[in-house]
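Example 3.2
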Amino acid sequence: MDTVSRLLRMADLEAVLEKHCLLGAGTRMDVARSRALTVPFHVLLEGECRLYVGREVFELRPGDVVLIPSGVGHRVVTAGPGRPRGTVETEGAAFATQLSERGGDPVIDLFCGHYTVNAGPGALLFRSLPGAIHVSFGQSAETDEVLRGLSFLMRGEALRDGSGTAAILSALSTVLLAMVLRTARGAATADALWTAVADPGIAEAVSGILANPGADWTIERLSRQVAMSRATFLRRFVRETGTTAGAFLTRARMMTAAQLLTTSDATVAVVAGRVGYQSESAFTRAFRAELGTTPARFRRESVVHRL
């Protein structure tokens, strides 16, 4: 299985399209900080607007997608004279419709939604990404074609708003995330997005680690496998992923460990061995450092959440 597909399956991802925003000129829409394990996203279908995420400002154009793994509060603003006006919301069968106060013709057509993930692999995946990721037209012909097609399908289904609309929009939103993860790099800060590694050798190393995190991976073995010198491999790995090979290996092992703890009856000691740890205590320390809790407590709390 490819890297992005594997990650989305491990994350137990669920996509929800919450709002269809048809905003007029001179409108400001504030979006509150997301709940834990929730990642907001926006898709601009028509028009132009600005999206403020912390200190970053994104100029959005038709077809643009922004994913906000940090979940921080943010603001959508359309250009217009005078004091910005707010929005009003109308509930619908599949999603809410957001309009500008005091009416007027819309200047943007924007979808807003979120992804929910599990507390293990899903949380670690999104925690490893930049705070905001912007994908726009012009990055590649493949990306442009898919984004254009997704925008067309999402708009058509939103206008229909009938039986099955929520499920169809959820599925299309999941496709959108897969496209972002496999094609995008970081936004304004140009941070590396490790799910979209361009270097074939580093991509092979990432895929190999995720497929078999319990293997006896060493820098020497990884660099040999991708036909690079040790120094070249280390330099390229950091450049492409934004982290060291050792830190990435630990993260991959903890993602798999969290999945095993919630989907199997294997003891903590057995899970530790499966992800490459000979010592249960060393595994527990690494797990706590990544997820903020012990493996045993994580398993208990996961069982409670599923009940």
